[in-house]
Design a protein that fits this description.
single chain; alpha/beta; 293 residues; 9 helices; 9 strands
């Protein structure tokens, strides 16, 4: 099998144009990302990467935070390529002046060319554009983020740089007990404490919703069947909207008092039904509390 060729992506551009968002998105796509790398260290950094088998897709974020060193960026890229070490890809992020001004005011951060907060913000932005013109002209990709939402910017990166053009969507169905605390990472929480409780059936009390006797008791109740049909219909209506909005994983938490009977039974059935259309994992957070050892 041929050795996978290592990739170097250099992310640069106007301050405030979205480099932090891009860095996080690239990490999610499997890139090893180094932020605020001085250009003079680019050669040494790439030698280190080349001598490691741990990294194959590498991104270096380089911008005017490195001050005067930034002017060395083109020379360093040319040196790498002249030596045959790597064919670097440069991504330049841009945005209009009015959008950059608005972003600076919203975050209350200073331009890297700001003179201790003195002088006009717009003058600093225009000076930055002048300094960045040579690297912009050399860039392989230019993305204007002025009118892009975070989700749209991430999808554009996926379309351009990811091996998978669309991130996979998956669902986790979780059962839990309210008396042990609500799961903080759930997107949807459904309380099923209103359903008939097997806890009050002595022969069912020791078991969990993983036991067929408990499962059948919960699921065969008329009120459960009415509720479950509406719940499944609700989720099947909502899930395509989550996917459209760029959601990659949806966590649905079903809770009862102790997380032993009702929530486990509902979660089991829900996982089976949703798995007909989507990848589904199931977690029963409290079940281990009730399993006899």
């Amino acid at each position: 099998m041929a050795e996978e060729k290592k990739q170097l992506l250099i992310v640069t551009g106007m301050s405030g144009a979205g480099k932090t968002v891009v860095a996080h998105a690239l990490e999610d796509m499997g890139y090893f990302v180094v932020d605020n790398l001085p250009p003079t260290l680019l050669g040494s950094f790439w030698d280190l990467i080349n001598n490691s088998n741990d990294f194959h897709k590498v991104a270096a974020v380089i911008d005017l935070r490195v001050k005067t060193f930034y002017r060395d960026l083109l020379d360093e890229v040319n040196s790498l390529e002249d030596n045959g070490n790597v064919q670097a890809t440069i991504l330049f992020l841009d945005a209009s002046d009015d959008v950059l001004v608005a972003r600076y005011k919203e975050t209350r951060r200073l331009s890297p060319l700001a003179n201790n907060g003195k002088g006009r913000l717009l003058d600093g932005i225009q000076e930055e554009r002048h300094i960045l013109t040579p690297i912009k002209n050399r860039s392989n990709y230019i993305i204007d983020t002025s009118n892009l939402s975070t989700k749209e910017l991430k999808q554009k990166l996926i379309n351009t740089f990811s091996d998978r053009k669309r991130q996979p969507f998956s669902i986790e169905v979780m059962s839990f007990g309210f008396k042990y605390g609500m799961p903080i990472d759930a997107d949807i929480v459904m309380d099923v404490r209103f359903l008939p409780n097997p806890f009050y059936i002595p022969e069912l009390r020791p078991f969990t919703g993983l036991d067929k006797r408990v499962f059948d008791y919960v699921m065969n109740k008329k009120e459960t069947q009415v509720f479950y049909k509406k719940l499944l219909d609700l989720l099947e209506t909502a899930i395509p909207g989550y996917i459209k909005e760029g959601k990659e994983k949806l966590t649905i938490a079903i809770g009862c008092t102790g997380g032993q009977h009702r929530s486990v039974s509902i979660a089991q059935q829900l996982a089976r039904d949703l798995a007909k259309k989507y990848p589904v994992d199931i977690t029963h957070r409290e079940v281990s509390r009730y399993i006899r050892k």
